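Dissemination and training. As part of the outreach component of the grant, students in the summer workshop were shown how a complex can be specified as a set of sequence lines and then modelled as a single object. The example used during the hands-on session is reproduced here so that future cohorts can follow it. Participants entered these lines:
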Amino acid sequence: MHPAKIATWLSALCFAIGLWQLGGSAWLLFKAEVAQYLISDSWQHQLASGQTQKPWPWADTWPVAQLKLGEEKPLTVLHGTSGQALAFGPGLLTGSGEPGNLDEPRTTVIAAHKDTHFRNLGALTKGTVIQLQDRHGRWHFYRIRGAKVVNSETDRLPVADVPGLLLVTCYPFDAVSARGPLRYLVYADYVDVASTVQL
Amino acid sequence: MNRPFFHPPRIQRDLLILPSDEYYRRRYRKNRGGSWLLLIVTAAAVLFAAIGVRAQSLEAADAAQFETVSMDESGSGDLLFSSGEPGRYIPAIHLGTEVDIRVRGLVAEVVLAQQFRNTSNEWQEAVYVLPLPENAAVNGMEIVVGERRIVGKVREREEARKVYKKAREEGKRAALLEQQRPNLFTSRVANIAPGEEVSVEVRYLQTLRFDSGQFSLRLPTTLTPRYMPGAPAASTQSVALNAHGWSLPTNEVPDAEQISPVMMPLAEIASHQVGDQDSHQMKIRVDLGMGLPLADIHSPYHEVNFRREENHHYRVGLKHGAAPMDRDFALFWRPQTSSMPSAALFAEQSAMPAEPGAQYLQLLLLPPQESLAARKLPREVVYVVDTSGSMGGNSIRQAKESLLLALSRLTQMDRFNIIEFNSNHRSFFPRPTAATSDNIQRARSWVESLQATGGTEMAPALKEALSQQLDHQAGTLVRQVVFITDGSVGNERALFELIRQRLGETRLFTVGIGSAPNSFFMTKAAQYGRGSFVQIGDLAEVQAKMGALFEKLESPLVTDLQVQWPQGVKVESYPKRLPDLYRGEPIRLVARTDGNALGSSASGEVVISGRLAGKRFSRSLSLSAIAVDDSGKGIGSLWAREKIAALRDEQRERGPLSDPEALDPLRENILGLALGYQLASPYTSFVAVEETPVRPQSESLKSSPVPNAVARGQVMQSFTYPSTATGVYGQMLFAAILLTLGGLLRLLQRTPQVVASLFTRWRLVRKGVAHVERSLRRWLRTVIPDMRRRNACINNGYRSGVSR
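and obtained this result:
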């Protein structure tokens, strides 16, 4: 084959794969963004009806809380931290504390992808107020105590029997690979509960 | 004459080379392509730059934050983040292990000595999760410091904890050995001085396994991290000791923190050296003295060498001296065919003064063999395969390989189904389906696509497997469930109960996978499932081990086994009801008799009868000729251990008492037995305490976990930390690189054209620039007065004025 022809094909291949990859990553970001609207909708329904409602019929997860980091727009938290759940929103780690369950206090652990929902986690500073809405519609307030980087291969998840909030995402934030062992933890102390405002 | 000269020569049209349509089209397209190309490359570059800027700003943001915030400044930070500073974690304790195994008769006596060396500058308490064989009868524990030995005693569990805790606080050297599962113990050593080495010796007895003419012995060295199902619950321990487990207690596994040790990759542990010794290395010496000439001694996962001594004694050791503790040690040996025993009988006089007339008996008997050519019954098999995260790495490959092999054994008459489970379960067919070649082919490709990820929710999958076969229309089918797993769950009891209740006519076979499977689960599940089990630790073993399992699956069973003891002898033998036997399995039991009934001329015979493939058979063994060992303590301990296991089964079947405050008679029974025979049990622990305190009260004590090595071939599990990156950046970067590469390739191809076009463009640019320059100059001239001109003007004017 003529070298020029090979080059043509090769460049076409590069373009095709490149566009495909670009599309794939754009799709991931798009999914993360758009799913939040659907999920927050079903969260509102769930709050109104008191029944667990899946955002779409074939979903294997459902909303369990709503999270507001500082002044950012609220994120709806899903049940479980499987890859499927995290693609659509932050996930509540199974086995960690249920938001708003003060009878059996336990640290609430919420994880999300560093490149979608928790992309601004690193910008949170000490003292920032985080709000979490439980399934009864009550808003709970937490204040950030600090942040820390841990190695997930040697450190265990610091869950204690106090009602705190632990946000987990990957570290470093600009890492290209998705399989790094480091995790960025933000711990917030429980402050207060506010009753729902009925409109 | 001239005309033809000026006239162009006639050339035939097809010889003429003219630019074709194709030429124009391509040229046209190329030009268009060029502009597109420019657009895409620019877009990619901009995107690339944007990502870079974003990443940099984030990095800057979090770097700034780390300067201002430190969680450790707050007092209770320690409670939350137990393992200090981020980065590498270095264990404070160096662990060495030496194992001495003496095989006598059908029993292996094991002394497991573990050296805990404190390499830190603080006084330490070492906490280590010690895996032992599931049928180990632990009957001794000692602390060895230099020349001194402190002998451990069996105490009731809570009491032992209190004794240990008190000694720990007082600064005395102490050790505690607690049973968490029949095959998982917690070993604690308190008050190890900086730089000091304290050794803990654990002694146990283990019955040898005998299958298809081959004896075997297994010694676990590490464990596969267990999955803890259920919702979190408060710990129920009344005397709390720091367990260092990474898992929290759940309602289904209340002791989860006790059986979830810190796991570390072997490479990382081994880098922790004292002198030239790596941590977590094990030396093994085996003395094989069965009194039989042996034909074949081999270890599948370690390289061993052996030496023959007189009286058919064999000494086995590791070829390289020591081996890392990242996989089970297994040893197989086979008596020479000419001296293959068909029955073995060992007796022992009780060593306890309280029971002078008691004697213990251990029996092994091979039932008659049926030739393999027996008619095969059509089967209905449900394969259940574990695809949880703990199966990642080599394990899932072994599981797939086993499953594919199993599928290839099915015939047209059989029916089959496959269920895979991790956090959820999926059934390949809704119901077992005929094993047509088409169905098998589809199943094969499905199996190939399975991946190991997620939790180990075993109960729903087991339920599904056992309920799929409830249709009674297929009455002639032999129903089997083959369960392929590493058994890495913490809720074994609940699963056994499930198997027991739902089994029906089905038989459950377990295939243990991996370098460190949970043998307790494998054997017990097979016992409750009235099936058999095999363990596969290496891909190379799949063929042979699965072959042995298929022989069992396809051969007729030995059923209706009965034991008849001589008249007038009081006997208590275990197992209470002899299980059905698969091909190659021996009848085995341990019994206690009273009144010196063995070894005398009036002893009589024990008769064992059963049924094989519709034919009755019976074997009798004389009890009068056997030699009763006066000095041994082995069979008595094993008998007590078997009895405890039987009582535990009974307890499990009964379920929890309705009144939690009431005294459980079975618990009291087990406790009495364990204390009497000095055995570790769920209710008793070994505790050893030195008399004099060694640690001055001014010094503090630090408690450190001794990690277990990640089993060989397994993927390290990031404990409970979810994976929180999508790899979007990587993907975008890849996309940008590819697009740029594609663009460059096109550019290269069109270099002359591009250069030419660039050149023309350059001329244009220069023209433009010149134009701009000119107009700028003109404009400047109008704005800024030219001093020279002005001077000239003045001069001129002056002159002209003068002249005027």
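The first strand of chain A starts at residue 63 and ends at 69. Students were then asked to discuss how this feature might be tested experimentally.
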